[in-house]
Amino acid sequence: MKYRTLGSSGLRVSRLGLGTLNWGLRTNSDEAAGLVSAFLDAGGTLVDSSPAYADGVSQTILAGLLKSHVKRESLVIASGSGIHPMIHPRVDCSRRALVAQLDDTLRTLGVDHLDLWQVDAWDPHTPVDEVAQTLFYAVRRGSVRYIGVRGFTGWQLATLAARCAEFPLVSAGMEYSLLAREAEGQLLPCAKYHGVGAVVATPLAEGVLTGKYRQGVPKDSRGADPTAAVSVERFRTEAANRIVDGVLTAADGLATSPLAVALAWVRDRLGVSSVLVGARDVAQLTGALAAEELTLPKSIASALDDVSGAQP
Fold it and tell me: Counting CB atoms within 10 angstroms of each CB, which of 51, 213, 237, 250 has the fewest?
């Protein structure tokens, strides 16, 4: 596994990270243990979690692995605060809510600090200076080492980054793939200007870029799950089919998988520090890790840019 720094910081992370969104939903604790073992064996470090994933079950599974399966120092643990799936209002980034959720995360995981703490949503009801001061407070008391955001737009990132001179933001979590390139318009340029590294989520467009939905919906796929089907279907369009066909053609020419092609493309985009892989099991993770061995030829990367509609 190769490593990159998060933005302009000195925090080194594996350029493929392990996402835990599905832990407790489609991945049980035994499968999660296998995923972490395979990830560490490959040299991976960054593990992304959140108390909002699976209503907290995901983080409970990670806590169990930290107690019995994984050494804390072997992981770069990222988590966030601001989204409360079981509480109204759902988004609350007040100082009270952010710190309470951070403290609960630390207790749940059984650790004394997070390597990366992220504000999980923009809260129009909380002054941005209050959010910035809360982030500084967490760093000063030693609860977190670095700070970032997730799900922000370009102007939201710029607004908070301008308030974070004492402890700069180092990461911005965002959706980005060959089927979702909106971040190239404002968010990625803004992140680059402020020295913020992109941590990419949904790099395979809910699995659509692997080609498995090209001829229909497999029975064991996310698309067959009523709770996940909506997020999959937004990528199943005629325009998307042409892009998927381009990925399949590139994979065939390179004698590799469409999954590896799609991951390698987004991994090597300007400003990307790490790409989160939400593998359901070890077999899926093994396929994703194959992307580490792949560097797309410039001609193929350019062709994929063209077919997917490069943003200005």
Answer: 237
**201 pLDDT exceeds 70?**
yes
Residue 149's φ and ψ, nearest 5 degrees, are: -140, 165
The fold adopted by the segment(s) 3-205+271-291 is TIM Barrel (3.20.20)
**140 half-sphere exposure, CB direction, 13 A CA radius:** 8
pLDDT in tens, 241-276: 999 999 999 999 999 999 999 999 999 999 999 999
How far is residue 71's CA from residue 192's CA, in Å, rounded to a whole number? 33
Question: Is residue 48 a contact partner of residue 274, using CB atoms and an 8 Å limit?
Answer: no
Q: Kindly tell me if the per-residue pLDDT of 36 is higher than 70.
A: yes
Asked if pLDDT for residue 311 goes beyond 60, the answer is no
Residue numbers annotated as active site: 53
Distance CA 82, CA 120 (A): 5
Task: Tell me which DSSP letter residue 97 carries.
Answer: H
